[in-house]
Every structure is written in structure tokens, then in C-alpha cells.
Amino acid sequence: MEKVSKKIQMVDLKSQYENIKTEVDAAIQNVINNTAFINGPDVKLFQTELEQYLNVKHVIPVANGTDALQIAMMALDLKPGDEVITADFTYVATAEVIALLGLKPVLVDVNPNTFDIDIAAIEKAITPKTKAIVPVHLFGQCANMEAIMALAKKHNLFVIEDTAQATGAEFTFSDGKKQKAGTIGTIGCTSFFPSKNLGCFGDGGAIFTNDEVLAKKIKMIANHGQSVQYVHDSIGVNSRLDTIQAAILRIKLGHLDDYAKARNKAADYYDKAFAGNEKIKTPARAKFSNHVFHQYTLQLKGVDRTALREFLTGKDIPAMIYYPIPLHLQKAYVDPRYKQGDFPVTEALCASVISLPMHTELDEETLKYITDNFLEFVNK
Fold it and tell me: Pick from 379, 380, 377: which is nearest to 317 by CA?
């Protein structure tokens, strides 16, 4: 079959930019004209607009998503040796900051269908040293926050939501109440890395909370530990979102819900194309969360994944593995508590998942080309 005219990208940021070019260029030029590159007006405006969008009392913009997680843990006064529970199947940054602060990462397995952290595994891992849970809203939908918050209340634990892949996703509680990802736990953290659903043109991140005292502390830590200039009440860091990135994010925030609709439309096409194929398991949609499809991740059954990727590459179709190695088998996180086989779901996912292009600019011609070629290999 003929290749499509346009180069296929995992994330097509150029086409997305071209569709909002006039708005973005004007926003950037305005920052340059005003020369307010650090803590300029757009930072405060973006903060306010994101607070309104998320319906959360406090948004604190920071330099990146990893800083957001680190500052959140610093603000909660977690001490070296304290245990923090998180998922084994996630990007390394989630566990990285736990280890960096001298805390003890406690890894648990995930749900085989929705990829979110396993509730029974969390409860089993709680000890007297446990101080926090870090659920990851992986690939674009929420973890089971109602169950997690119940566990946190029962055991007096903090909850730090890692919502870097699910900004805009919404959790529905059993009573029908809805809340945006990142606004349910003690603190929420996100990244504005360019490929995220809400991404800037460089690095960026933010922290969310409804707790007034925590918000003040987070702001102070992110600003060298000072609430008044040159008066340092605590050890802090230097982490801030620059004004140009904030200006870009203000534009893209206005399109975020439309971006989610476009991603869902692409996901629906993929789902329909792969429906009923015994060798392909399409992403499950959690009953308690909508999906904003940061990634479209399939599980393969009886398919040579390496050969499939090579075949797709030959057709100019990118495909990625998120994630190829579980955290507990990474050299940096080797721990005598864990060995191969301890996290069967995560290990099985790492051996079988594959992610296809997912972004806001996928058209039907491109989706057909991707799915036709994918099925050609799988069904041969």
C-alpha cells in the first residue's frame, strides 16, 4: 500500500503549532516586547486560568514535572527512610525523586487492563514507615483515586498525584461527583514537556493543591526557600516556569478539551480497526475515568514485537515501547526486596506493550495506513 504524503510522527508538534501559529507567535512576541522573561504577567495569568480549568484553589508553576514531584515531597516534610509507595510500571522520574530525597521507594504492581496502580497491592505494601502514595495517571486516564483516598484516610497517608500524562482527564466518584486529575490528592504534579497533552515549547511543570498552608510552603520551597526576598526560612530550590512558556501554555490550554476530543477520535479509530483480533488487546477504559490518550498502548499476544517494530519502521511508521524495563529491574533501583518475578503484571506488560502514534493531528488517511500495515504483520 502507498505511503501517506505526510511524515508520520509519534507526536506531531509542528502541525499542531501551525494550526495555532498566529496566536502563539503573537503571545511570544508580546513577552519579548515586554522583556518580562521571568515571572512576567503571563505566568500569573496562566496560573489563574489553570486554577479555573482544574477547579483547584492553588496552582504553582515550576520548571518541570520532576521538580514538581520533588518539591511536593519536600513540602510534606518527608524524612529520609520514610516509605513512599508508587507503581513499578511508570517512567523513572516518579521513583527518581523519592530516592533522590533519601526516601524509600516501595514499588507495587499495576492493573493488567488499565495499567493503573493496583489497590490491593498498595494496601499490602503499607507499613508503619509508609508516609505517602504516588499514583500515576498513566497514558491518559486516572488511577482509582476513590479507593486510593480511602486507603490514605485509613492509614493517615499523603497522596501525591503524578498527572503528567493525564492533564484534563476527569475522575468520577461513586456518588457521581467529578474532579480533574491532580486535584483529588494532597498534592497534584504535572509536566508541560512538549509532547504532553498540555505541552509548552521547552520544559515546564506545575503543582496543584487545595491546601492553603501547603500552597504557601510549596511556593516558598520553589523560590529558594524564601517568602520575602533575601529572607530564607527553609532550604529550597530554584524552580520556575519562564514567561514565554507560560504564554504558550495559555494559548494551548484554551484548546486542551478539543485536543482531547481529537485524541479520542484517533483512539476510537484504532479500537475499531483492531476489534476482535485475538493477538491485539486494545486499551481498556476505566469505568471511573475518562481517557485523554496521552499514549495509545496495545498489548500483543503471540507477536514478535521486535520484528513488528522493524516492519513498521520500514513503512515509516514510528512505534514506541512504554516501558521496556520495570523499575525494579533497573540498575539504579536494584533492591534486595525485589527480584524478577515479583511483579508479574508489570513484567508481562514490559514484554508485550507497544504504543502507536497518538496526537491531535492524526487524519483518517494516516490512521488507515498505520492500522492496515500493523494488521498486515500481525495477521500474517
Answer: 377
What's the pLDDT band for 354 if we cut at 50, 70, 90?
very high
What distance in Å separates the CA atoms of residue 241 and residue 65, rounded to the nearest whole number?
11
Supply the CATH classification number for the domain 257-378. 3.90.1150.10
Tell me the helices (H) and strands (E) count for the chain, helix number first: 13, 14
Is residue 2 pLDDT above 90, yes or no? no
Cell numbers standing for residue 25: 507567535
Enumerate the CATH 3.90.1150.10 domain ranges in the chain, comma separated: 257-378
What pLDDT, in 10s, does the model give residues 227-278? 888 999 889 999 999 999 999 999 999 999 999 999 999 999 999 999 999 9
In the chain, ranges of CATH 3.40.640.10 domains = 15-108+116-253
Predicted TM-score (pTM) of this structure: 0.96
Collapsing DSSP to helix, strand or coil, 298 comes out as strand
CB 159 within 8 A of CB 148: yes
Which residues, in sequence order, are CB contacts of 148 under 8 Å at separation 6+? 117, 119, 122, 133, 135, 159, 185
Cα–Cα distance, 376 to 365 (Å, whole number):
16
Grid cell, residue 283, equals: 486499551
**Residue type at 16 in one-letter notation:** Q
Report the candidate in 209, 91, 205, 193 with the shortest Cα–Cα distance to residue 161. Answer: 209
Question: What is the CATH number assigned to the segment(s) 15-108+116-253?
Answer: 3.40.640.10
Residues of the chain above pLDDT 70, percent: 100
